[in-house]
Specification:
Strand 15, helix 14 and strand 16 form a beta-alpha-beta unit. It contains 18 helices and 22 strands. Helix 2 packs parallel to helix 9, helix 10 runs antiparallel to helix 13 and helix 17 packs antiparallel against helix 18. Strands 12, 13, 14, 15, 16, 17 and 18 form a seven-stranded mixed sheet that branches. A five-stranded mixed sheet has the order 1-2-11-10-9, covered by helices on one side. With 572 residues, it is of the alpha+beta class. The chain folds into three domains: 177 residues, D-Maltodextrin-Binding Protein, domain 2; 145 residues, Dipeptide-binding Protein, domain 1 (Alpha-Beta Complex), CATH 3.90.76; 222 residues, Roll (Dipeptide-binding Protein, domain 3).
């Protein structure tokens, strides 16, 4: 990933908040000053977190048992890699499963189950390791990859991420039921050789293979679960660094080191307890203060206390874009372009971030494409600045009247805003409720749901507007650029535009980087002019970690929080 200064966005392992990161946060005024001051002057130790309590299993660090305790933001909705669509499930899967390739602690693509790989024309060959094993001791073979990939492409499975395999020959046609699954270009030549035939040569396929949808599955075990694969800890086989040994739904999860993992010597922790499932920053702060978790993200109101406690701060831009999506289905009022234009002209992401959310590290949203994505010679957004709407209430009311005329209405009925149940989701929804009422006399009904139910309602199209987010699956702008393609089932509002689809095809198939970037720029323009969605923010974190735990890595691509290289410094 080409960046002028990677430390502006991605924290290298063990780094403190840098001056470059401070410049990124400078727009947040006093909070940013506090952050930068804290980063430059805070002590390196946590006086309140001592090794005397570490032997207790409920504590953040259990030195005796070589175990740490952390948290998950939500209950993982889906641990079946063929069906998973969310970041929380993806983070857990990255600890208990391994694909052909993976990302190391420096964000570099390295061999996982595959010890080497080669692209020749439109054929990619992977040679698997002899010592790769499932958690029951059976070998991981090329057939496990062929089965998993072809299975998720089956129309009956209904994988929302099937599109990410579409670069493979006949994958899209098989997923649409147009050709048999056996015609897809995935072939286990023998136990150790997987040959993938691509529809056209593409330079970024190896980056896609590191994503969770490309994980393997043991067919015999999968079949015996009778449709419950991934539903509980004992309904999975694992081939990654850890195994899930306990999953109390909605409450906790425990991962233990996998003795069958081929690179087990690299894994220095014996267990990870995810003893809490919450995204409430106040709860997390209290858990961290009480020495019950090894890390916590901080809100702006917590920075002063962090300085008083002498905590070392870290900063991380996670790469995800959050936005308010419209339902474009014909029966929905939000399918009307003039209504969407009216709402876009009273929407102000800067006000949302700086006056409402007020969390350190957040950037106002301007585009579906985040600021860190690479272009040809610079970041994509530097080469192709995002067009933005400026708040214009008078013009917004003109568009609203046009919408009412087209819809044959004197006044809009209430619109449903589907959102999460987290604190940020709640204040964001209440802010929009007030903004649209005050400026356009539009009533929003807030439908706040827990994570899993929100995803289900999004998939069913049970909303007018929805607070959504999209994180990168692989290191290429296409990971954002194809989100609104008509065939992408993660396009929850079912937006469909042949002009946008044509640009996605160019970006998928061209080997000319300049041509591809022009296609992404055209996608960005169409999304803006058609008001496909309204960008809200790009999320960043300021966080603290336990001083005894080293090697925690946070990735833009791959698992957001990665404990696979973490270890306990018993002498701290």
């Amino acid at each position: 990933m080409k960046q002028e200064d990677p430390s502006d966005f991605v924290q290298a392992p063990g780094d403190r908040l840098t001056r470059a990161a401070g410049k990124q946060l400078a727009v947040y005024g006093v909070a940013a000053v506090l952050l930068l001051t804290a980063a430059m002057f805070l002590l390196n130790a946590l006086a309140g977190l001592t090794s005397s309590a570490a032997g207790m299993s409920r504590m953040a660090v259990d030195v005796e048992n070589n175990t740490i305790t952390s948290y998950l933001r939500q209950e993982p909705p889906q641990m079946n890699s063929m069906l998973a669509t969310d970041a929380v499930s993806g983070m857990v899967l990255a600890h208990v499963m391994e694909g052909l390739l993976r990302y190391d602690q420096y964000g570099e693509l390295v061999g996982g189950v595959a010890e080497r790989w080669q692209l020749e024309g439109n054929t990619m060959t992977f040679w698997l390791r002899d010592d790769a094993r499932w958690s029951n001791g059976e070998p991981v073979t090329a057939h496990d990859f062929e089965f998993a990939w072809k299975n998720l492409l089956s129309p009956s499975v209904g994988s929302q991420y099937a599109f990410i395999l579409y670069p493979i020959l006949n994958a899209e046609q098989a997923n649409n039921g147009e050709v048999p699954i056996d015609d897809v270009g995935i072939n286990a030549v023998d136990d150790r050789t997987l040959v993938v035939t691509l529809a056209t040569p593409i330079a970024y396929f190896d980056r896609m293979v590191a994503f969770v949808t490309y994980l393997p599955a043991n067919e015999a075990f999968y079949r015996q679960t009778d449709g419950r694969y991934g539903a509980d800890a004992d309904e999975m086989l694992y081939n990654g660094p850890f195994m899930m040994t306990s999953w109390v739904h909605g409450a906790s999860m425990r991962l233990e080191k996998n003795p069958y993992y081929w690179d087990a010597d690299r894994i220095r922790l014996d267990a990870i307890n995810f003893a809490h499932m919450t995204s409430d920053s106040s709860t997390l702060l209290n858990l961290f203060k009480d020495n019950q978790i090894v890390m916590a993200d901080l809100g702006s109101e917590m920075l002063e206390e962090a300085m008083l406690q002498g905590w070392s701060l870290n900063q991380f831009m996670e790469g995800t874009v959050f936005y308010t999506d419209f339902n474009h289905r014909p029966e929905r009022l939000t399918a009307n372009l003039n209504l969407r234009k009216a709402m876009a002209l009273v929407h102000d992401s800067g006000e949302l971030v700086n006056k409402v959310i007020k969390l350190p590290g957040y950037l106002p949203g301007k585009s579906l494409f985040p600021v860190w994505l690479p272009g040809v010679d610079d970041n994509f957004r530097e080469e192709y600045p995002a067009p933005v709407y400026q708040r214009d209430v008078a013009q917004a009311r003109v568009y609203l009247q046009r919408a009412l005329d087209e819809l044959g209405l004197d006044r809009l009925p209430p619109l449903v805003l589907l959102t999460g149940d987290t604190p940020v989701s709640r204040i964001q929804a209440e802010y929009y409720q007030e903004v649209f009422k005050r400026n356009l006399d539009i009533d929003l009904v807030i439908d706040a749901q827990i994570f899993r139910q929100r995803l289900e309602k999004m998939t069913a199209g049970d909303f007018d507007l929805v607070a959504a987010g999209w994180g990168p699956d692989y290191n290429d702008p296409l990971t954002f650029g194809d989100l609104y393609a008509s065939w992408n089932l993660n396009n929850r509002g079912r937006y469909s535009n042949p002009a946008l689809d044509a640009q996605v095809r160019i970006a998928q198939n061209s080997l000319d980087m300049t041509e591809r970037m022009r296609a992404f720029a055209e996608i960005q323009r169409i999304i803006h002019e058609d008001v496909v969605m309204m960008p809200d923010y790009e999320r960043g974190y300021v966080y603290v970690t336990h001083p005894q735990v080293r090697g925690i890595v946070r990735h833009v691509i791959g698992a957001e929080t990665d404990f696979t290289n973490a270890w306990i410094d018993a002498g701290e």
